[in-house]
Specification:
The protein has nine helices and 19 strands. With 386 residues, it is an alpha+beta fold. The longest helix has 21 residues. The structure holds zinc ion.
């Protein structure tokens, strides 16, 4: 057995020292690319831009050729540090203390990138295999995610690069490393509702038409909907009102208009089209035979998906359970990730570290968990190509 060429802890620290707050990569992609080239990966940078977005750099690295093709997906960008003075150490110093590694991006998700880079390095260094291992790394996941993974995948498809299976290294575990593997996600539909009435003096309601009255009735009907009761793999679809607003600086004026925003996280029993129709009908019905005017806008940022349990998902579970000693659970909970883009091209599952401190002040991971995660990824690669 040959010596490991990369130390995943040192690589994590080195990635964290680059302040790669979306969309700036702060040099992090170069550091990663240098490591990957050193161990024999072919690297391609893909810079994408489009009107009204910031240009974003991405890195696609491959080793080997043809199928089967296993890809590791990840993002080097991080969210802003927030209140810097609340941090115990500088968020980009990557300090290790009491067995924890601290820094912005430690949990989400530079440690996982270091872990799968090390695992891939160890594997290609030891084993002759048939197929391709790749890394698809974007610096735009935490932001608009327009010039990132989505475009890289489109570009690869144009070049006839076919990925068969993908593991996204997002932090998936709620409390200990190995407790959860994600095999799908809910969809996310945001709706902006604006209702216009007639502005006027509150003392003369006969000459006004209060848009807040109509809006609250509409919202009540929407949140009272019971969309479904979930499936074996998904929790029930859920509707939340996230914003209500009526610009009004006076207490004696009925405002002209009122707006609200709702977000629906929905499972595979619902569809974007079905939900749009449902919401439109509720509003139309509530406002019919009135003088209110309404404007409704929908923005669907993710479709729900479920990766069928297969040889691929069982290999992941076997690897996770054997390294961690736990009985991992398959889940579809949580927010969206770039898995929503991969799912259109290949089977995709997500496994990574404990995510409880992601995006927080003093974000951290256990150093020991980075070592274990590296072993998990190495086991997955071995099983995948065996
Ligand atoms: Zn993330």
């Amino acid at each position: 057995m040959s010596e490991s060429l990369i130390d995943p802890i040192e690589l994590t620290q080195s990635l964290i020292t680059h302040p790669s707050v979306t969309p700036n990569d702060g040099g992090v992609l170069k550091t990663l690319q240098d490591q990957l080239e050193r161990i024999g990966f072919q690297c391609t940078r893909m810079l994408f831009e489009e009107p009204d977005t910031k240009p974003v750099d991405n890195l696609f690295a491959t080793y080997g050729s043809g199928s089967p093709h296993l890809c590791f997906g990840g993002h080097t960008d991080v969210v802003p540090v927030g209140n810097l003075s609340s941090w115990t150490n500088d968020p980009f110093d990557a300090v290790i203390k009491d067995g924890n590694l601290y820094g912005r991006g430690a949990a989400d998700m530079k440690s996982a990138i270091a872990a799968f880079t090390t695992a891939a390095s160890n594997f290609v260094n030891e084993v002759d295999f048939k197929g391709t291992i790749s890394l698809l790394i974007t610096n735009d996941e935490e932001g608009p995610a327009i010039n990132g993974t989505k475009k890289v995948l489109e570009e690869l498809a144009k070049k006839n690069v076919k990925i068969d299976s993908c593991i996204v290294g997002e932090p998936t575990c709620p409390s200990q490393l190995g407790d959860m593997i994600k095999i799908g996600r809910r969809g996310s539909l945001t709706t902006n509702i604006s209702i216009t009435g007639i502005q006027g003096h509150v003392a003369y309601p006969q000459w006004t038409l209060n848009p807040i009255d109509a809006l609250t009735k509409v919202l009540k009907k929407i949140v009272d909907l019971e969309l479904d009761s979930g499936t074996d793999d998904f929790p029930p679809s859920n509707i939340e009102i996230v914003k209500i607003n009526a610009d009004n600086t006076a207490d004696n004026v009925v405002p002209q208009s009122a707006t609200a925003q709702i977000n629906i996280r929905y499972n595979v029993l619902q569809s974007e089209e079905g939900l749009i129709k449902l919401i439109n009908n509720i509003i139309k019905e509530e406002l019919s035979d009135t003088d209110y005017k309404s404007k409704i806008e929908f923005k669907n940022s993710a479709q729900p998906f479920l990766t069928k349990k297969s040889d691929f998902t069982s290999k992941i579970k076997e690897a996770v359970d054997s390294v961690t000693g736990l009985n991992s659970e398959f889940s579809t909970t949580g927010g969206t990730s770039d898995a929503r883009f991969f799912k259109d091209y290949c089977e995709v599952a997500e496994f990574g570290l404990v995510g409880s401190s992601a995006h927080q002040v003093d974000e951290h991971v256990r150093v020991e968990d980075i070592e274990k995660l590296t072993k998990v990824y190495e086991e997955i690669i071995k099983k995948y190509f065996s």
